[in-house]
Write a structure and sequence with these properties.
310 residues; alpha/beta; TIM Barrel; eight-stranded parallel beta sheet; 11 helices; globular
């Protein structure tokens, strides 16, 4: 088969010890170069490599005081860290995929602790600045943006699913935007996958390591024949060796259900690193995970006979 593309869905949260501008910049460059050296074809660029991505996104959209979240909350694109990171990588000769929290997960996390107010009521107010962010990235040359929607794996009530369908229908119809990769990792996608199957989202990331039921879910929606699926078959939580025959068999089954397949880690790579793991070791482990992904992609590209997982 044709050589598949390979990626990881994020990199370890970097230590704030290196937060001085010069050190931070050098550390970010080191991570990108390390991922490139492994042979990954698609490299993520984190908008907030040193900070909580939800707090960072809140500041990006002008929400500095989360306890004041309410009906009067307004979102405005104050600056574009995703664009800054993307352009910085391009100056180094690296094409990357900007990574941000998805709008629904962002609102649900931002709204935690605000009893009596449904943060998803703010979705319309949030989609306009998200659209502006995507349009600016497209103008700069970004081909794809990753939106992490982990909350949709665990909080997919009928009301949330309706909001999800609305949000991605709205974003999908933007005339000038990068391709959208929606990441439904760290659990079984469930009914959220059916919503994305009907959307104009180009790519979906699924975890097949901790959630093998995603294979049934994918078959249950009739596959995604017009979409690319990022297949998480390498454990992104640790550097354990890959069960290659099983991983290849899973990829083979997914190939029969989708338009294109990307071999990937199962989740954003140790973000943040495990407690007690020093940053140099975390970066080394992240490199090992990326190498597992690349090796598996090479094996899949060379494979001519893979069967169903046993």
């Amino acid at each position: 088969m044709r050589q598949p593309r390979t990626t990881v869905l994020g990199h370890p949260k970097m230590s704030t010890v290196a937060h001085a501008d010069g050190d931070a910049s050098a550390l970010q460059e080191q991570v990108w170069r390390q991922l490139k050296e492994t042979g990954l074809s698609d490299i993520p660029s984190e908008a907030f490599p040193f900070d909580d991505p939800f707090a960072g996104t809140a500041a990006l959209f002008g929400v500095e005081s989360a306890p004041m979240l309410g009906p009067a909350t307004r979102f405005t694109l104050k600056y574009n860290k995703a664009l800054e990171a993307y352009l910085k990588a391009r100056r180094l000769g690296l094409e990357t995929r900007p990574v941000l929290p998805g709008p629904l997960t962002f609102l649900q996390v931002l709204g935690e602790g605000h009893s009596g107010f449904d943060a998803l009521r703010l979705l319309d107010a949030l989609l306009e600045p998200y659209a502006e962010l995507l349009e600016r990235l497209a103008t700069a040359g970004a081909q794809e943006v990753q939106l992490d929607e982990g909350a949709l794996v665990t909080r997919s009530s009928p009301a949330v699913l309706r909001k999800m369908a609305y949000a991605y229908a709205w974003l999908g119809t933007l005339s000038h935007r990068p391709r959208l990769l929606v990441c439904l990792c760290s659990g079984e996608a469930g009914p959220a996958l059916a919503v994305l199957a009907e959307s104009k989202v180009e790519s979906v990331a699924l975890d097949f390591v901790t959630s093998p039921g995603n294979l049934r879910a994918l078959a249950g929606v009739g596959g995604l024949p017009r979409k690319r699926v990022v297949v998480g078959v390498v454990d992104g939580r640790n550097g354990v060796p890959v069960d290659r025959p099983r991983a290849l068999a899973t990829c083979a089954m997914v190939l029969g259900l989708v338009d294109q397949l990307v071999v990937a880690a199962s989740c954003p790579t140790m973000r943040p690193p495990p407690v007690g793991v020093p940053q140099p070791e975390a970066l080394c482990l992240a490199r090992q995970i990326a190498e597992h992904v690349v090796n598996l992609g090479n094996a899949l590209g060379a494979s001519t006979d893979v069967g169903p997982p046993q």
